[in-house]
Structures are given as structure tokens and as C-alpha cells.
Amino acid sequence: MSVFGDYARYYDLLYQDKEYLREVAFLCTLLERLDPDVRTILDIGCGTGVHDFELARRGYDITGIDASREMLAGAETKRGDCADDIAERLTFKQADASSFALDRRFDAVVSLFHVVGYLTTDRALEDAFARVAAHLADGGLFVFDFWHGPAVEASGPAAREREVEDDDVRVKRVTTPTWLPERSMVDVRFEFTVTDRRSAVSRQFSEVHSVRYYDVDVLTELLARHGLAVVETGEWPTGAALSPDVFGAYIVARK
Description:
The protein is an alpha/beta fold. It has helices at about 10-15, 20-35, 50-55, 70-80, 85, 120-135, 150-155, 215-225; strands at about 40-45, 60-65, 90-95, 105-110, 135-145, 160-165, 170-180, 185-195, 200-210, 230-235, 250-255. The chain is built from eight helices and eleven strands. A seven-stranded mixed β-sheet has the order 3-2-1-4-5-11-10, sandwiched between helices. The chain has a four-stranded antiparallel β-sheet with strand order 6-7-8-9, with no helix packed on it. The two termini are about 35 Å apart.
């Protein structure tokens, strides 16, 4: 089943309270500390571009890629509405994380909101890391977050419900996970009920997202095969040390 199809239409509404500003601030702190000369950034799995617009406002030149045409449509709509000096720092392209080829190199590559978890096989992950290495300048940084294996295994995934609305629609999302520990994966079933607030007519649809969680040691080994050396790990986006209680982790690797 394809992902982020109909879901993409309501993505920004569902994540309107996500701490994008905090995440961008933390990312910029990492980049400024580890390589203050970073100016160009490639964002793999950029979605509707919320991180990218904030990075552009801070003066970075951003290229965002995503496999979902629908998500990119949202990013392009925002780009058309923003100030010219921000828009000119942003480029969005449809491309797959494991096979993209942009014929240029970047000072840094980032991949946020657990995009790496959607690469559910070693082959797909290694292909993506090879693409990252090919697009990084020598000494460039690769920053990504992921589901931290020890925390997932300690607590297990949980079912959730969320309901949000704007002037036009009310969206209810029911999240039902199926844990597949033998594959270090979770199949996440999203069931949506979208109600038009004017007509009160509702429609339903669903998507299943398969997400893999990782141990740092596994990622470190796979990164090293492609000339990417881990220089920092921690909790995303606080920088605290990793532990079995930390669900969201990050790695910084240098080419």
C-alpha cells in the first residue's frame, strides 16, 4: 500500500503542534558546533517542507526530496506563498531515498521525523547511505533521527487516537501498531475519519506504514561501509545521552 497519499492532505493539520522550531534550533546547534561552514543542506524525506522553511529562514540553502508527490505538492504550495528571499533558497524534487541522483554535493545531509525507519531492509538502508555519501562534500555531516531499538523493545508500541480540526474539516486518526520483533519492525495502521464541518459528510480511509527501529551499533556498522563515521549520538532533540528510556534518537556521521 502506498503511504502519504490521502494522508498528505491532512498531514500539517495533524502535526500542527509538532515542535518543528525546537527541532530546527537543535539541528542548527549541532551543525554550528560540528561544522560552522555548512551553507547547503539536502533534506531526505522532506515531506511538506516545514523543517526546510525554518532552515531557509536561518539562511541555509535547502534541497528537499520526497517520494510522495502529494507531500511535495504541500511544500510547493507553501513555497509559492512565502517571501521571495526564502523561496529562492528552497528547491523540492520527487525522488526515492535509496536511488536519488542530483549531480551535486552538499555541506550537510539531514533526514528527520524517522524517515530512516521507512527503509526497512539492510539493502534499502545501505543504498540510501551510499547515496548520502555520494552527495556529501568531503568532511560533510549526515544528521538523522530514528526509533531507538532498546526503548521500543522495552515498552512496545502503543495504540493511539488523535482528533484535530480547522475551519473546514475534523480529522480523527486511530493508530494501531502491530509489533514484529523478529524483524525489528512495527506495522502502523492509520485509520482516518474526515468530516466536512459544513456538510457533516464523513469519509474514511486507511494506510499502513511499516517502520523499522534500530540499534546504534547496527547503524554505525552500515554507515561505516560507506565512509560515514559516527561522531555523535543522543536523544532527539535534546542531546541527552541514549538509554533504554529514549525512544527518539539521533546520529551525526561525518564523511
